Each structure stands twice: as C-alpha cells, then as structure tokens.
Fold:
Amino acid sequence: MWRYREMLPLIHDENRVSFGEGMTPIISWSNLASRYGLENLMIKDEGINPTGSFKARGLSMAVSKAKELGVKSCVIPTAGNAGGAMSAYCAQAAMKATVVMPKNTPRMFKEECEMYGAELILFDGLIDECGHYAAEIASKTGAFNMSTLKEPYRLEGKKTMGYEIAEQLNWTLPDVIFYPTGGGTGLIGIWKAFHEMIELGWIAPEKLPIMIAVQSSICAPVYDIFNGRDNVKKYSMSVANGLSVPKAFGIDMIINVLNESKGSVATVSEHNILQGVAEIGAAEGMLIAPEGAAIWEALKAMIKEGLVSRKEKIMLLNTGNGFKYMENFPR
Structure:
C-alpha cells in the first residue's frame, strides 16, 4: 500500500512500520459466477494481508504515524483482527500494545495478540463495551487510543483499497461494491479514496460505484438507522466477529457514503453466513472469512430480488482469512 505514500500522512519514511501489506489480488469466482449467471464478478481478497485481514492496512498507517509522533504505548478495543494487527505492528515499532477483546472471541485471535507480546484484557461484553474500557485505560495510563475513527490514520491506511481497485482495473471502477460493515472505516476510506482520485483527475466523477453495506441480522445498527429505526436494540455477537459492532462511532459518515453513492444496507442471517462459507469453500477452494461470506449471501439475495443486475460489474471485498474463524464454524 505504500506505493501510494504521497497520498498518506507519514512525513518521514524511516518511521514506516510495514510487513508488505496491500496490493491484494482481485480474483474471479468463475464457478459461482457461472452457477448464478453473473457476467462480471470480482473478489478483492484482503485475507492475504499480513496478520490475515484488511486491518493490517489501517494499523500499519496508524502505528507508523504514532511512531512518528513519539507514541510509546497504544490501546485498542477489538472484535479480533484489529487487535492482532495492532499487536504485530506495535511489536515491530517497539511500542507497548494493550488489547481489549470480548471473552467469547475465537481463541486464535487471543493467542495471536499474546504471541506478538501484547497485554490482552478479556471483557464480558461486545466491542462497544470494550471501547469504553479501552478509553479508561488510555485516560489512566496515557496510552494512545487506537479505537476506530477516534484517530484519523487507520482510515488513511484503509483508503488504499480504493486506490488499488482503480489501479488494478485500469482506472475504472465497478458498478457496485459490497462491503461487510462493522465500524465502517473501510467503507468510508474507499469512498474517500475515490473522491481524492476525482480531484487528481485519475477517475471520472460520474463513474462512482453504488456502495452496499452488509451486516448480520443479529447485529445491524447501520441497517436500522439507515431505515429510520433509531430505537436502541440489544444486539448479539455474530459468527462474523467483525460485524459485531452494536454502535458504529462513524455512523453519520457511513450513512453519508451510502446516500452519496445511492447505495443501501443489506442484512444476512447467521445461518446464511455459515452456508456461504461452505458454498464458497466447496465451489472455489477458498476458506473465506464469515464477513466475506455475508456479502456473498447479500449479493445472491439482491440478485434474486432484482436489486442488482447479473450484467453489472460487481466487486466483493473479502476482509479476512477464514482460518482464524475455524472455532466459529460447525463441524
């Protein structure tokens, strides 16, 4: 991702903390495309990033900038992948890392943080409650709070997905992009990149894609707010850990992206998410994160309802590697 360094807010290259994240492949699921009559289906696979998810982009940028600004200690609330990523990048930057994680997160995510030398704190609650505790730690210890959109740099790293999509498609864009949405930083970042490229004259403003946010039906605050349901609900933890965000701090920015792009929000049942993981694995030989399976299931539903055309240029963003989630999958 650092090929776009001129568009990133790091001043001195010697502060860069990187494991070679970014420029992930865009692949075709030819078997599934044929099965469902899809003429142009593309998947950008973020699961091959260092630490196994798109979180590597945001934390590479954020830890690099923290290093440049003299930060010595960081704390983060996480549903899984962000904690592992911050732990790894802090280790390379010789910073102390503290990770606050829900107790019922799969064991692999917990062990990953500890293997990178982070202090792991398990919390009885979802990520919003972990976020409150992380803020307390930051206040008491002086650690820098890396919470989603509480600092500006994770977004800057994740926006590089948007630059890559355009570059890999020869400076054109898909007609529609499906994105699994928890905290929403990736969705917001991609849209920010598109607008930066319009200002640079690299892409045409009239060619921006429709953005579809996808959530689990048991944790769908963006869906509820987008559809005018503001009353507070009790949400549950999804098998797609990254979708288990009961309150997105950047909800106004997420809604703005959806409105600007004439997009919408889709929800998928837990059963269908697991069904999607199995279908993709058997058809394409790819063990996808459940968040990636959710967007596949959302696409199928929207095709069936006539909301997306089989002829459109469709891109799915798989945000992580499914191997980390094995504990969540039924045997």
Observations:
- The mean pLDDT is 95.
- The CA atoms of residues 188 and 254 lie 6 Å apart.
